[in-house]
Amino acid sequence: MASIDYDSKIPNNVNLSDDRRLQRALEEWQPNFIDWWMEMGPDGFQADDVYLRTAVSVEKDGWAHFGHVKMPDYRWGIFLAPTEGERKVNFGDHMGEDAWQQVPGDYRNALRRIIVTQGDTEPASVEQQRQLGHSAPSLYDLRNLFQVNVEEGRHLWAMVYLLHSYFGRDGREEAEALLARRSGDSDSPRILGAFNEPIADWLSFFCFTTFTDRDGKYQLRALAESGFDPLARTCTFMLTEEAHHMFVGQTGVERILRRTAEATRGGADPKAAGVVPFEMVQRAVNLWYSLSLDLFGGEDSSNAALFFGAGLKGRDLEHKLDEHRALEQRYTLERVVGDRLVKEDVPLRRAMNEVLRDAYVNDCEKVVRSWNRALEEVGSDLRVALPSRRFNRAQGLYAGMHFTPDGEMTSAQAFETNRAAWLPTDEDRAYMRSLQTRAYTKPGEFAPWISPPTRGIDGQPVDFEYVKFCR
Ligand code: BYC
Ligand code: FE
Ligand code: FE
């Protein structure tokens, strides 16, 4: 396996210097990426020194090097996990054939579409988060935000490498388009719903990194099984970076909950105490969880059947399952007929989005249990709950219908009556803005609405100077 070459303009472990044409094409894209980063990346802070990790090896351990760098100098590069002997296509109709090192002609469009959709989410999230630095609750949190942002930038690089390397001219055009769409833009929005929603405060950010980055985890795990070997290897490495993003989200929400529970212990009013009311946290969970459920696509999907049959996109941990063709089995879905939910069997392949969503829901339930353990620890009776997977959906079988957080069908009118109890309100947003009017930028200083973390990053103390301001 080629080690990482940090001497060339674009750090990589794919022997980029052996392919001059590709190298030149990527070097032409690079300044456009930097322009995008300066225009749409974190607002302010580009001249400051941030304690960031950079990949130094793609092996399981010891891949990260930590040091203070200015974000525009971050070494975005192309890193693929090492090959593991002779890889085969491990599921679907081509099972047992050699894994593809080039794009299989029959599946070119489907594969390009998967890569473009994945790639589009990465810069979208950076755009959504670009104002958050100005209201960071601490240097520790500011650093974590920027770590997530530069790595999402690198994930964009990973998909752009595949487009440039394997899709010729239309791949290069798609790579340009990835820098041209804008989150939330009415003319040229990002592709998937959740990536056009504003992330205006840190509660939203922590919910996003808990729930939406976790969709990323499952989509990447499904793509890490792909018969198209370069996609599988790049997603395998992206997954090592993803763990930290979810950690930031999960611990962030937990720290908000702890602070709220402590400040309201004697029955104090949370707003008077200057903390985030528990119900507001629950509403943000309801929103970001339901938006993230939508990212898995329709419960019954011909695209999903095609992706699986073709060997492009597997199931979560496909390699650990016993059966890899999914031709005979069926999956039971609940479809709405009239005003009732009726069970219906569909061919398993058509239900692959739902199968992946099952794994995701399971994982989210574990996260919520850990939050509730933290609440219990600080003596609070409050408990977070995930809403039903039918609640507030805009994609799939339950889109355009109305369900309560418990999953009961309800009318549009009843939903509107309860909306303010179930989903974030303008008042919630205004309150969060009132809490987050400035950044807390002295080492060891934390905003009063969040508990400090139990430990720092990379063995550094919590009051370490994670960001050094150079202004
Ligand atoms: N919003 O057959 P269907 C991450 C479209 S996150 C808008 O049901 P399919 C990250 C769909 O495109 C991981 N449109 O769905 C996290 C289709 O359109 P067409 C991102 C949507 O195709 C945080 C139609 O509806 N990776 O990495 O089976 C920070 C019917 O579609 C949505 C991937 O998504 C939506 N939510 O499944 C940074 C992996 N959902 O064909 C990064 C690649 C569906 O009618 N993507 N539609 O024009 C895929 O595998 C699939 O495209 C999807 C959809 C799972 C997204
Ligand atoms: Fe990502
Ligand atoms: Fe991420």
Characterise this structure.
This protein is mainly alpha-helical and 471 residues long. It has a single domain, classed as Orthogonal Bundle (Ribonucleotide Reductase, subunit A), CATH 1.10.620. 46% of the residues lie in helices and 7% in strands. It is built from twelve helices and five strands. It has helices at 20-40, 108-128, 139-166, 168-180, 202-223, 229-263, 270-273, 278-294, 302-309, 352-377, 412-422, 426-435; strands spanning 49-55, 64-70, 330-337, 340-347, 467-468. The two termini are 42 Å apart. The structure holds benzoyl coenzyme A and fe (iii) ion (2 copies). Benzoyl coenzyme A is lined by residues 114, 117-118, 121-122, 125, 152, 192-193, 212-213, 215-216, 219, 294-298, 301, 303-304, 313, 353, 395.
* Strand coverage percent: 5-15%
Which ligands accompany this protein? benzoyl coenzyme A, fe (iii) ion
Average pLDDT, all residues: 96
Distance between the termini: 42 Å
Supply the number of helical segments.
Answer: 12
Strand count, sense and closure of the main sheet? Answer: 3 strands, antiparallel
Radius of gyration: 22 Å
Question: Structural class of the secondary elements?
Answer: mainly alpha
- Helix share, percent: 40-55%
Contiguous low-pLDDT stretches (5 residues minimum) are: none
| Order of strands, widest sheet | 2-1-5
The helix/strand order is HEEHHHHHHHHEEHHHE
Number of strands: 5
CATH class: Mainly Alpha
CATH homolog superfamily: Ribonucleotide Reductase, subunit A
CATH topology: Ribonucleotide Reductase, subunit A
Q: What would you say the CATH architecture is?
A: Orthogonal Bundle
